[in-house]
Amino acid sequence: MSQVDLLYRLQQIDDEIRAGKKRLSQVIRSQRETEELLVARKLAESAAAELHEHRATQTSLNLELKSLNSKAQRSEQRLYSGTVKNPKELEDLQHELESLTRRRTTLEDELLEAMILVEEAQEEDESAQAALSEVETTWNQDQIDLKQEQDELVARINELMVLRKKHLELISPESLTQYEAALRRVGSTAVVLMKNNRCRGCLVTVPANLVKAVDEGQLVQCDSCSRILCPA
Fold this sequence. Notes:
Elements: H1 3-30, H2 35-81, H3 87-168, H4 173-186, E1 191-195, E2 198-199, H5 208-215, E3 220-221, E4 228-231
Helix pairs in contact: 1-3, 2-3
């Protein structure tokens, strides 16, 4: 195998390593929590917090209503027990009962509204939790697939690195120097095929004298783009 062919194979190995590393970087980034998951979790947390707030309000109103009913019962018992004889005290008890009754009516209305809000919030919470569960299930499955792909990419990149090291032993220092210099000049692809007397890197026609040299296996660079030409 000529030095040009060896360099072309090195280019293929380097291309696959570079593509593998790029994909590995994408796979690692993809394992972060997605915007969809973050939004679903935020909505679920918000729904749960709202449900908790409405339940707390309902509990508070229930306790207040229970306390008020007990107080009203005690006042009513005193009023009609016959033990209170003083007209002023009886009048005060009557006013207190009327006030407690009005407050009870208000509390019952507020409690009914709170119960409705709890029911609505519970439905919203269940819906948000179901949506979150669905998104999490999909995300978790994706993570399994991504982790598997990550392991495969790491293994393949390591395999290619070993292969590259062995392949370098076949390439002369002069050829490798020319390859690395071409890489610095043109970027990621230093060696390209020459097909139909054209450089496949820049698609410019290669002069006849260079075509002959390429066909003979010499290390030739394209006059136009400086890439090393390899016969197809």
